[in-house]
């Protein structure tokens, strides 16, 4: 009762299905689904097996059908041959019937004459009839063989008949009355066989075996020249078909297609030469014709490489030409073992094309190198090449550094396209072009320096230069970049060329004359480096010349080294007392060199050699200008000029002071000493001519040397008191005017550190033969 009451209270409990029943119901449904899926998979398996069986059966049927088609084609060809043979037989029968009718007609007219002949004519030799029958059978056999195109058997039949009847060769007089007719018929069959052989050689699809048999057959028929010509023609046609099939792929392989073309051409030449040697033997006539044919094919190769190459001014064209030379010369060296020496001919044919590509590539390089305003974001240089130039990179020198990197990148790109044999034969030409390209680059840098150029070839106005090196630091960076390119980077880039040329010299004994470069192509490394040195010397001399001229001449065109300093022993620039000093312009020169050395120490850090070379050349330029200044010596040597011993002493002291600057700074002073000695000697002669005795008027030489050294020490130490108090305001004005346009000017001339910046290097560093002054 309680349970019934509970069921009334909770009627929803009746709808609850036990879990076991749920599991049973769904388990049975899952099993049914799996079984159904299995049956479907089995049906699918049967369908797939049926499909595979049908496909296999159809494939086998297709193969059988293909075989039947091939058999049908073969039977069709045989049927064509049979029809052709029957046609020839019918034609021969018709010809024979007509011939018999003609003979019968002629026979009716000769019956009477035959009856009147002697009786012994009726007793003809039966052997004559047998010979005619044999000849007829031979011609008939040859006709059948020709109709069936059995050329080999026909050749054997003709050869056997000629051996049996030597008269057919025309070498023996024919005594048989029937022989002329038989020979004529025989020659006709022989000509027909020759035509068939010629037809075989002219077929585009003829195989090499069939071609060889046909050529050999023509040779047996006595047509050797024709057989040789047809063999060369067939091989050439085969080569042309291979080339035409490859030409559409040339744009896909812009660098390697010349090698493929070269392989096609020279492999054909090699195989053809072997075939001719095996068929014709060692006959000089045939060998000469092979060489002529090979020359024509090589000319075609060069033309194809040129026609399918990229634009001649691109590195792709240079790479294509290099690969063509490399591959072709390698093939020529292999052909020499077969008696064909084609290397010289190949170089004669390729030289104009290679030189044209080189010329256009270097023209392009010249345009890109001189285009300092252009930017090339794709410019990539390894740190090995970029780091030396990066030391000069500043915000004001970015155009200069980019131009130098572009120059090295372009030259490096050109050199990387060259193959060893191209370097061997054209290396000297390429090195000369590289040095000429550096000349153009230096000419552009000269235009970037201030001051007029004295080089007649540099006629282009300065406003075309995209950058100007106005400050000392910019000018020194320009010189340093050019020096780095000439001294370090260019030799590094072309080292691959020199290594190949040196290896060729060492291995010259093992090379044949055909692959040795001409003597006109050789160039010595030291000569090439000397050319680069002269180009850089031109840039250095222009810098020193304009730098010294800016120092000597004021903005209004007046010279600071005025001859009045040395006249009458008076002048505002002359300081002469108990403690004499050089004249103010030479004191200013010392300050100018000191200030420039400070800037050079920062810009050309780690390049003490170039610092000393530049400072030495600047000092030389000053004394050279004074030695050659006509206005200066014209006034001094004028008879109206009033000369006093004090002026001569001051001039000699200034020269000794200049020499001591070079000595104490540690750079070469020999040239400065020579020029200064010449100036002193000329001055002494001038003063002596005016009655001044140098022996009594001048102190000893040691006094001038010691005074110059003391003056340098005073200027460096900045001595106070009476030693410098007499250097008036004009001295300060001159010095300020000289250094006002330079960067980083020192506060005074008393800085020892600034002097040591260009005096600390060892003199031995300047004894190197590389980039020293040519006059030294």
From TrEMBL:
It holds the Pfam family Exo84_C. Keywords: Exocytosis, Transport. Residues 137-342 form the Exocyst component Exo84 C-terminal domain. Gene3D superfamilies: Exo84p, C-terminal helical domain, Exo84p, N-terminal helical domain. GO terms for cellular component: exocyst. The keyword Transport applies. It comes from the Eukaryota. One of its GO terms (biological process) is exocytosis. Belongs to the EXO84 family. This is Exocyst component Exo84 C-terminal domain-containing protein. It comes from Escallonia herrerae.
